[in-house]
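Onboarding guide, step 5: your first structure request.
Type a short instruction followed by the sequence, for example:

Predict the 3D structure of this protein.
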Amino acid sequence: MIEREVAIVTGASKGIGKVIALKLADENKIVCAFARTQNKIDELVRLNKNIIPFIGDITNKSFVENSVNRILNDFGKVDHLINNAGMAVFKKFVDSNIEDLQKQIDINLYAVFNLTKALVNHFIERRSGTIINISSLAGKNGFAYGTTYASTKHALMGFTKSLFMELREYDIRVSAVCPGSVETEMIIDSPVRPQKIDKALKPDDVAEVVSTIIKMPANALISEIELRPNNVK
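The system replies with structure tokens like these:
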């Protein structure tokens, strides 16, 4: 079994996931970076050789299980799972459809279930592990144009809180990170774009929080954190 810590990061090709992957790799962790797009992950590997690409669809149960088995065979363990991949459709409810909701459920909830399910017995056997779900303030509050998106993030919060209660006795740490608006492609051209986008959170802010959660002493955990910009005036 390798001594270095091994982390899985989903949605690692861009935005928050890319910065989290690079942050953890810079800390000398082995980072298994999951994404759909080969060329963007290749760029990450060029930036840091601690990053190992896994290209595929994390809503596909077989792909997830095969990938996790490969990681466990190669390294003997996984220490941290960062469920970051997410998508959003911002529309008025009257313009929304069931397909919009389903697409977001698949990525924002079902994919999280897939990765967590594939690793949970490994974490229980080791009595160790960190699961960090990147949620959103939309998982705690509603907002205009966000009925479908906020619904999936509320579901993710319910999943995370319940999982925390189940796994705590095995010394497994489960955390939810709930950022407000982050300056990424997802919101820049959307109807929920902040008027002062330069005041929005940056992906580095979220990555710093993830790193801090991972570094917490073994007898302590951060179960939930809300992350907001300091001054939006």
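Each response can be followed by summary notes, for example: The first strand starts at residue 6 and ends at 10.
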